[in-house]
Amino acid sequence: MELTGAQILMTILKEEGVDTIFGFPGGAVIDLYDELIRSDLRHILVRHEQGAVHAADGYARASGKVGVCLVTSGPGATNTVTGIATAYMDSIPLVIITGQVPTQLIGNDAFQEVDIVGITRPCTKHNYLVNHVEDLPKILKEAFHIARSGRPGPVLVDIPKNIGVAKTDYQPITEVKIKSYNPTYLPNTKQLKKALNLLKAAQRPLIFSGGGVILSKASDELADLAHRLQIPVTSSLMGLGAFPGSDPLWLGMLGMHGTYRANMAVSQCDLMIAVGVRFDDRVTGKTDCFASGARIIHIDIDPTSIRKNIPVTVPVVGDCRNSLTELNRMIVEEGIQPDETTRREWLDQIVFWRDEHKLAYEQKETIKPQFVIEKLYELTRGEAIVTTEVGQNQMWAAQFYHFDRPQRFITSGGLGTMGFGLPAAIGAQVAFPEKTVVDIAGDGSIQMNIQEMATAVQYHLPVKVVILNNRCLGMVRQWQELFYDKRYAHTILEHAPDFVKLAEAFGARGLRASRPEEVEATLAEGLETKGPVIMEFVVASEECVYPMVPAGKAITDMLLV
Amino acid sequence: MNSNKHTLTMLVDNEPGVLSRVVGLFSGRGFNIDSLCVAETLDPKVSRVTIVTQANKPLLEQIEKQLRKLINVVKLRDMSDDRAVRREMALICVHARPENRDEILRLVNLFRAKVIDVASNYYTIEASGDADKMTALIGLLKPMGIKKIARTGTVALYREPKRGI
Q1: B58 touches chain A (CB under 8 A)
Q2: Residue A253 exposed, middle or buried by CB count within 10 Å (0-12, 13-18, 19+)
Q3: Beta carbons of A180 and B21 less than 8 Å apart
Q4: Are B66 and B29 in contact (CB under 8 A)?
Q5: Cα(A116)–Cα(A101) distance, rounded to whole angstroms?
Q6: Confidence class for position B165, pLDDT limits 50, 70, 90
Q7: CA-nearest residue of chain B to A311?
Q8: How many CB pairs under 8 A join A and B?
Q9: Is A49 one of the annotated active-site residues of the chain?
């Protein structure tokens, strides 16, 4: 069957199960758009290409599917870079289609030409420039295969303008095989046996779970392991929701803004079972002091994650779900039970730590941001999909909104991208039109991609934006207060838009609460509103996120309130 | 060979941009490249890349894993030990004063090198061997006045032919 490049693109998107793409047209992709409008694919027109990638990212995180974007060459392509790097750091499967100038003009500094394949090489899992239309089917199939398999990640395909209109004979490709790319899904049994022996001997075991558990859909298997052997669970920011936040074995997040009990448990455990994590510096603090008394079992599908930052006793390369399933099976088969006395002592110790320092704040005459999030949690019964921006808003969301299920907390963990939350919320809302989707934002970061309110309004996506307005760039201000002698270098936002009017200007609803007693009613009203809403909460500007481990310190060196 | 030096050989897809992926990985992650050699293999779709890097054991493990993670890297082997042979080549243009000519020719013979160009006052020598031999030859020629020098990086092969790489 003879098809144009553009027709092949639409055909393969459908073959890959894509029903929605996020994008922004331009000269180099006009032929692709001309074909798109004739297909039954849904296209969400964003207001900035960065928004397209974050929206596709939010869509992918909420649904577990591959997110797809389509943008033009040059500035369209460069605007995607932050979004791509965000997805890369958090291992989110995306396929980004960029337009390129015609092949004969490449290298000529043509209008809107940029070497996007060169630019995104270090922040994509893989990328392609399509030189011949005959290569397009194979490249697109490989792109989807690479994006979603193994440790997922973003894959970029750069399509020159002439490739879109060039014709070739199209034969569907049913199987993708790349000889040099074979992720290890099944764990090595010998390694698992070693892990099992450590589990048998452990007196103070601790599970540290991460984003890999969510990506491999291993929540049930994780809970099974924890419950069977009565092992307490902590998680990275990316892993929140993989283990129920309401479970008695749950310790809260660990690391720089982790709970006191989680960080103490890390320092005192004698065995750490790390699943789908990469030991980021925000988790470990000073690596020499991290779980220094523990042997470590590290399960991850990406061998480069293992022994990159932390030496481990038993590495297990494999898919988290497969590995945990197999480990659980071996535990049942051997009838392994925790020793009741030692386990009781360990769990009692954790309860002691819990009571010693709980996450706390004092609600006085000004609204405390934590209070807003607690109320939001109550009103949504913990059922909302929550996205965040980056900084204090993100940490308070992680601390005070408790997630019982995976794929509910959508946040830029690795890259820490301000401006992520609103477009990501749009993407999550596209994936789940009926669910409540809330972006927990700060007044600083919301302004980085505020233009996407227009997208939300245009497509009737009822995202709820909760702005914790502290009139400053709170997290950096907090560092300046604590470590820079209160020299607030350019972190005070002396002018801000009127967010209520701004919401209205976009055609959304705007609400504001300035006093604690207004918080609940404002949230309730906002959440009940049918369309998109911005809810602004004028909060205490000096509030800091605690506990806090100063950068480079051991995670037991916590500044507590 | 210095225990910190490692010769890594890989077979990669012979496509535009692949070398940039390999080299970009080294620069982006702060790994070091002492030398680099690339050329097509018998199969025109495959190139052989040989990199000499300095790393301790955990770092070397990380470098190897990161390289294997690149989609275009088909195979990778550490060719640092005695199971592999390693060679490099140099073209050395040395000042050939009448009183030094015999000594230069003697060194060329001893090192099994060749004089490939003779000018009125200069000889150009082609030499190949392992890194130590090259360093030794260059050291001996230096007092006579090396005008310029071009050295390749290391190439390496496993001795037993059965292994794929």
Answers
A1: yes
A2: buried
A3: no
A4: yes
A5: 11
A6: confident
A7: B58
A8: 37
A9: yes
**How many of the other CB atoms lie within 10 Å of CB of B164?**
9
pLDDT over 90 percentage in chain A: 99
SS3 helix, strand, coil % of chain B, rounded to 5?
30, 40, 30
Would you place residue B163 in the very low, low, confident or very high pLDDT band (cuts 50, 70, 90)?
Answer: low
Give residues with Cβ within 8 angstroms of A449, minimum separation 6: A48, A50, A51, A54, A419, A420, A422, A423
| Catalytic residue (choose from A256, A395, A475, A535) | A475
Determine which one of A65, A141, A161, A368 is catalytic: A161
- Cα–Cα distance for residue pair B148/B92, rounded to 1 Å: 6
pLDDT in tens, B59-75: 999 999 999 999 999 99
Instruction: Flag if B58 and A307 touch (Cβ within 8 Å).
Output: yes
Which of the residues A112, A230, A451, A458 is marked catalytic?
A112
In this predicted model, what pLDDT tens digit does every residue of A279-296 receive, in sequence order? 999 999 999 999 999 999
Closest CA to A424 of A435, A439, A414: A439
User: For chain A, how far is it from start to end, CA to CA, in angstroms?
Assistant: 68
Give dist(CA A107, CA A118) in Å, integer: 12
Q: How many CA atoms lie within 13 Å of B139's alpha carbon, on the beta-carbon side?
A: 6
- Helices B131-141 and B101-110: angle between axes, nearest 10 degrees: 170
B-chain residue closest to A155, CA distance: B71
Q: Tell me: pLDDT of A94 over 60.
A: yes
Contacts of A117 in chain B (CB under 8 A): 17
